Amino acid sequence: MEQKKRCHKCGILKSITCFNKDVSRRDGYEDRCKDCKAVWRQQNKHKNTMYCKTYRDKNRERNRDHTEDYIHFLQDKGFFITKKAEKRDYRFKPDITPYKGNKYRIGFIADTQIGSRYQQLTHLHTFYKICQEQGICDIFHCGDIVDGQHMYNGQEYELFLHGCDAQTEYCINQYPEYKDITTYFICGNHDESHYKLAQYDIGKHLSNQRKDMRNLGFYGAFIDFADTKNLIYLHHGTGGVAYARSYKIQKIIEQLAPDQKPFMLFEGHYHVSCHIPEYRNVFAWQMPCFQSQTPYLKAKGLYPEIAGLIIEFMLNEGKPVEYHSMVIPFHIPKTEDF
Length: 338
What we know:
The protein is an alpha/beta fold. Helices cover 28% and strands 24% of the residues. The longest helix has 14 residues, at 45-58.
């Protein structure tokens, strides 16, 4: 049986379909029918227009679209919220000052794993101090500044800092900060774990809070300076260490397109060092780390090398020549260095 309702305006009993829905009413429909509402809108068109304009002017700020404000707020907190693609393999041209004439001296590190119970923060500070004494103003980091979270079963027992906020805050306060030294870094898979779990870009947050730390994106970055092209490529790998140490960086170099080949490749992630000179005209270094042997590495039969690297070279017509490398090793790891 068709449901009907009497309009409070015209008093006519009409089909329920002649009324708009209103969930605040007991029967779920408005008291005035659609025809009466249309007549009222036509008779009060000018009044309604003025009311709407006054309301918009009065509440303009409150009704303004705050989406961009929310995005900027979350970005400042370190969350990865953007309309652009994730930054990978971008090109950067930092202001690198020659050490002497056209001679450059630069420091390289990787896998500091801040937040791990096995971090080597004391040795890391020592390396920065040595770089400062050597007149080095620029240090490049090949990824995994922090140890991240949920990387493998049992990692939670190897951490003394849990969560992105705790690791970020500790890194801001404790990561080496030396006068005139700038750290350029990419984010590795441990850094990316915060992004995967919480959309939190820890690299961006660190660079916002520490002016001496420059974020270069995830997994890879090309570095050019002094009118060079493809001078340095910082890369953070994936997977485990191969049977032959040189295998990983050999395969990476082999897969680089001719126009993407750098003069120097620095590879993070594997925690053991290897140097291959002039492979497809690329000087490659697989980087050591600043983390001692964890239970996870011990179970896999892997022993990491704790060291930093200093590279000295000259530029001639936009190409590096006369490479000299110096490894700064730390043979005895610190225990509970946090």
